[in-house]
């Protein structure tokens, strides 16, 4: 018998085939719409990665509200993906919808500050503990702009990232360790410049490697998620960030924390909840309730250095900011989201349900004696195909199994449950209910039960 990740692989393959057939049979309208779209959309979808789900053709969403959405064939789903964090506080939260409706007749963009700008910046400062803020349309842009500012402010050219990191579409971060050698990712299309000239990469949780890189004296900043989240989940080991922050400061570099995913850790993100003191901080996706927007903040000292760099430069375009950055529409949505949706009460509800979900997954995994683990940070939960939590990007990548992931994801989808593609991440939102979690756990166990080796069969 062929086993993989503790499962009978023949049973997994049979399950996957049956689920594909079921999906095709139950979604004729999505199939029709996908066929029409293929006539004019590159790859048949609005963005090519929408083809990377487990489905034979794209599922078309008709409407979404709270923790649920409905597809073109009328099926309702409980959403544990939530736009891969973009809708972390639920689809179309009412305060945000009301703010958008009010703003819809008052203008969208003017290249001038709106009345919401000051209050939004003040609230960001209160939450995250950094006094000075700017805006972008995505976390990718925010990270890109921060790197420009910090290179200008420090006079240093290099950025350090951790192996397996994710910071959106910023070219600089598409460098991995391959057999210990910094290597530009083959997946990055159309890149003609040698990224390894200005990007240094080390393993997460590896303090000696971090110190050795910083000692060279040419690192402008370390750009990091406080918990790695896009290669599965990798938690910092005890004492890692305390020591890492000391090393970064000692060697004259700056620390940029990307909280786009780890905002699931609390109203002020993981860094605030765990006493970290970054020089700069980025939040994207969910900050304005799903409307395209991102923010980045600086300490007072760094803000003064950044201002000096700009004022000392020749006049002209800085390469930082776009015409629609901080537009009135996004600012109105963000203010409502910050003030009325991202509340302490909402987080406490999400934390309780995520803990219920994580504990339930652990019980199922233990009951079926699978060599898997579960990690939770705040509202975010991940199961991984490895007995113990990975310590770095290399270990996390080795635990991933795209075929198995897709089989599980499609099984759940056919039963009205959506989880994040590409890995096994699950989010809960303020509108998620305890019975939704129980529905997911029951379906997950049914999926596992249908794939584990039959008792008495031989293992090779």
TrEMBL record:
<dbReference type="InterPro" id="IPR015424">
    <property type="entry name" value="PyrdxlP-dep_Trfase"/>
</dbReference>
<dbReference type="GO" id="GO:0008483">
    <property type="term" value="F:transaminase activity"/>
</dbReference>
<keyword id="KW-0663">Pyridoxal phosphate</keyword>
<keyword id="KW-0808">Transferase</keyword>
<dbReference type="Pfam" id="PF00202">
    <property type="entry name" value="Aminotran_3"/>
</dbReference>
<protein>
    <submittedName>
        <fullName>Aminotransferase class III-fold pyridoxal phosphate-dependent enzyme</fullName>
    </submittedName>
</protein>
<dbReference type="GO" id="GO:0030170">
    <property type="term" value="F:pyridoxal phosphate binding"/>
</dbReference>
<keyword id="KW-0032">Aminotransferase</keyword>
<dbReference type="InterPro" id="IPR015422">
    <property type="entry name" value="PyrdxlP-dep_Trfase_small"/>
</dbReference>
<dbReference type="InterPro" id="IPR005814">
    <property type="entry name" value="Aminotrans_3"/>
</dbReference>
<comment type="similarity">
    <text>Belongs to the class-III pyridoxal-phosphate-dependent aminotransferase family.</text>
</comment>
<dbReference type="InterPro" id="IPR015421">
    <property type="entry name" value="PyrdxlP-dep_Trfase_major"/>
</dbReference>
């Amino acid at each position: 018998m062929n086993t993989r990740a503790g499962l009978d692989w023949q049973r997994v393959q049979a399950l996957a085939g049956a689920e594909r057939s079921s999906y095709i049979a139950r979604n004729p309208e999505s199939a029709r719409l996908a066929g029409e779209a293929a006539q004019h959309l590159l790859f048949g979808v609005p963005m090519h990665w929408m083809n990377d789900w487990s489905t034979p053709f794209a599922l078309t969403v008709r409407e979404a509200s709270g923790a649920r959405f409905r597809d073109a064939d009328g099926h309702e789903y409980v959403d544990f993906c939530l736009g891969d964090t973009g809708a972390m506080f639920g689809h179309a939260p009412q305060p945000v919808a009301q703010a958008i409706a009010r703003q819809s007749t008052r203008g969208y963009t003017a290249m001038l500050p709106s009345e919401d700008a000051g209050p939004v910046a003040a609230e960001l400062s209160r939450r995250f503990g950094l006094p000075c803020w700017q805006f972008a349309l995505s976390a990718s842009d925010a990270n890109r702009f921060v790197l420009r500012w910090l290179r200008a402010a420090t006079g240093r050219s290099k950025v350090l990232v951790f192996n397996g990191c994710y910071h959106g579409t910023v070219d600089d971060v598409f460098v991995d360790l391959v057999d210990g050698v910094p290597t530009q990712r083959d997946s990055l299309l159309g890149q003609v410049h040698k990224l390894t000239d200005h990007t240094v990469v080390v393993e997460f949780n590896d303090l000696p490697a971090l110190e050795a890189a910083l000692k060279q004296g040419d690192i402008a900043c370390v750009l990091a998620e406080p918990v790695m989240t896009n290669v599965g989940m990798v938690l910092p080991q005890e004492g890692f960030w305390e020591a890492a922050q000391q090393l970064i400061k000692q060697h004259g570099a700056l620390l940029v924390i990307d909280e786009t995913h780890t905002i699931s850790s609390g109203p002020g993100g993981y860094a605030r909840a765990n006493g970290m003191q970054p020089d700069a901080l980025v939040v994207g996706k969910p900050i304005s309730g799903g409307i395209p927007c991102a923010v980045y903040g600086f300490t007072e000292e760094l803000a003064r250095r950044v201002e000096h760099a700009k004022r000392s430069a020749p006049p002209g375009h800085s390469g930082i900011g776009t015409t629609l950055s901080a537009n009135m529409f996004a600012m109105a949505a963000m203010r409502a989201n910050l003030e009325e949706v991202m509340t302490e009460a909402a987080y406490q509800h999400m934390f309780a349900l995520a803990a219920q979900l994580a504990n339930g997954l652990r019980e199922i995994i233990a009951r079926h004696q699978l060599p898997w683990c579960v990690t939770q940070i705040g509202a975010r939960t991940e199961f991984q195909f490895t007995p113990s939590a990975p310590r770095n990007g290399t270990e996390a990548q080795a635990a991933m199994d795209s075929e198995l992931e897709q089989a599980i994801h499609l099984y759940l989808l056919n039963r009205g449950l959506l989880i994040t593609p590409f890995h096994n991440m699950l989010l809960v939102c303020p509108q998620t209910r305890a019975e939704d979690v129980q529905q997911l756990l029951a379906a997950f166990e049914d999926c596992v039960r249908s794939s584990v080796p039959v008792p008495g069969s031989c293992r090779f």
